[in-house]
Amino acid sequence: MQRFLNVTASFLILLVMLFLCGCETSQPARTSPTLKSAADSGSSSGPYARTVYRAYERAWRPLDSWPNGERVTKASVTVARDGRVISARIVGSSGDVWMDKSVREALDKVRVVAPFENGAKENHRTFIINFDSKSMDG
Q1: d(Cα 125, Cα 49) in Å, to the nearest integer?
Q2: In Å, how far are 23, 59, 72, 92, 114 from 102, measured between CA atoms?
Q3: List of residues 6+ apart from 100 with CB closer than 8 A
């Protein structure tokens, strides 16, 4: 019985420590990443850029809250002419492992977006997507 009480007490202490340090488990919530075009991808406000943005917006499942305020994870996404995602990687960490993990999961989910519009001359386009926790507040 004493051993059971010791284990229970240790578990309760661990829960209190996690609560006090802001380490919590949360359910996913919807928010929107911001999209910024890389130098070689043309306009970040064009129809194709919005298509890429929406694909990652739908894929991202951030946590309900972020400790210590605003966090931004920057990702680079390169899309081939046929719409295949040929590269998706984090190029700037938010400094929060859980934020970066949620972005990595979104990057891994999107394998294909729409093919380039008719008349496009590029073989690929690269986009920088800023996944921003501050949009959680609004």
Answers
A1: 9
A2: 15, 10, 12, 14, 23
A3: 73, 90, 93, 94
Q: Which of 31, 33, 109 is nearest to 65 (CA)?
A: 31
pLDDT digits (tens, 9 = 90+) for 1-35: 666 445 455 555 655 455 555 444 443 344 455 54
In this prediction the pTM is 0.67
- What is the rounded distance in angstroms from the CA atom of residue 105 to the CA atom of residue 24? 19
How do residues 39-92 score in pLDDT, each as one tens digit? 444 445 588 999 998 999 899 987 766 656 678 899 999 999 999 999 999 999
Show the domains of the chain with their CATH numbers: 29-136 (3.30.1150)
